[in-house]
Design goal:
The protein has 266 residues and is an alpha/beta fold. The protein has a single domain, classed as P-loop containing nucleotide triphosphate hydrolases (Rossmann fold, 3-Layer(aba) Sandwich), CATH 3.40.50.300. It is built from 9 helices and 10 strands. The strands form 2 sheets. Strands 6-7-8-3-9-10 form a 6-stranded mixed sheet, with helices on both faces. A 4-stranded antiparallel sheet has the order 2-1-4-5, with helices on one face. It starts with 18 loop residues before the first strand and ends with a helix.
Length: 266
């Protein structure tokens, strides 16, 4: 079964230059017939530049799908996705790979550090793969801001196995920002950490936004993690249902409880 665009005669939306990333009329369908799942159902949302946005919602709400499609890790069934003013829709694999390499950073729940490389080599790995020299002053500032604050500068030549989980995630965060990407997508970045290490990583992500002018979009299920963001967007059943500026853990938790109540009534 082919899925037609929701608005087949609508022109592609004009890019929002104030947004680091954006989707418009985003539809993502998995499967066909009786197994069809509409993971995204006409979502339009912009992630402002130099802001920290969290994406939340119940299990199966589409939050991870939204991040993957906005970041070019998955393709939309219909609709449009932008990184800055560049539309992802229709890019071939090579151009999409280059765009992700040059303009997007990623932080995952698993730290994804290469065990045979040192801390310093892991941080500069994306630049090395691109054959780029990188901005040495910027990378040094990242190390000061994200790593040396806990005394890791003297461990730049150590292997990841010699670091704690929280320290490894700090290295992963520095790696994500090393190439000055337009936006960093973080998928449950504190999922493998204890509460103290997780809070430190969240503060680091916030610092890159507020002190260094970067952009972060984070998927999380944790109201405490979401409270570190400037804004939370809420998804349910593949649709954008709410936004919350200046979130607190209690307000986010109350909103998530409301989703649970609605789910039990349906």
């Amino acid at each position: 079964m082919n899925i037609s665009p929701a608005h087949p005669h609508r022109a592609a939306p004009v890019p929002d230059t104030a947004a680091a990333a954006r989707v418009a009329d985003a539809v993502k369908v998995y499967g066909t017939g009786g197994t069809e799942v509409r993971a995204l159902d006409g979502v339009s949302v912009a992630f402002p530049a130099a802001r920290f946005t969290a994406i939340m919602g119940p299990s199966g709400s589409g939050k991870s799908t939204l991040m993957h499609c906005a970041a070019g890790l998955d393709t939309l069934t219909s609709g449009h996705a932008f990184i800055g003013d560049r539309e992802l829709t229709g890019l071939d694999d090579r151009r999409l790979t280059l765009l992700r390499r040059d303009r997007i950073g990623f932080v995952f729940q698993a730290f994804n550090l290469l065990p045979t490389l040192t801390v310093a080599e892991n941080i500069t790995l994306p630049l090395d793969l691109a054959g780029a020299r990188g901005d040495e002053e910027w990378i040094d500032a990242l190390i000061d801001a994200l790593i040396d604050v806990v005394g890791l500068r003297d461990r730049l030549h150590h292997r990841p196995s010699e670091l704690s989980g929280g320290q490894q995630q700090r290295v992963a965060v520095a790696r994500a920002f090393a190439g000055k990407p337009d936006v960093v997508f973080a998928d449950e970045p504190t999922g493998n950490l204890d509460s103290r290490a997780g809070a430190e990583v969240l503060r680091l992500l916030g610092r890159t936004v507020r002190d260094m002018g970067r952009t972060v979009v984070m998927v999380t299920h944790d109201p405490v993690a979401a409270a570190h963001a400037d804004e939370v967007v809420f998804l349910a059943d593949g649709r954008l249902v709410d936004r919350m500026a200046e979130p607190t853990a209690d307000r986010v938790l109350d909103r998530m409880k409301a989703f649970d109540t609605l789910g039990r009534r349906s």
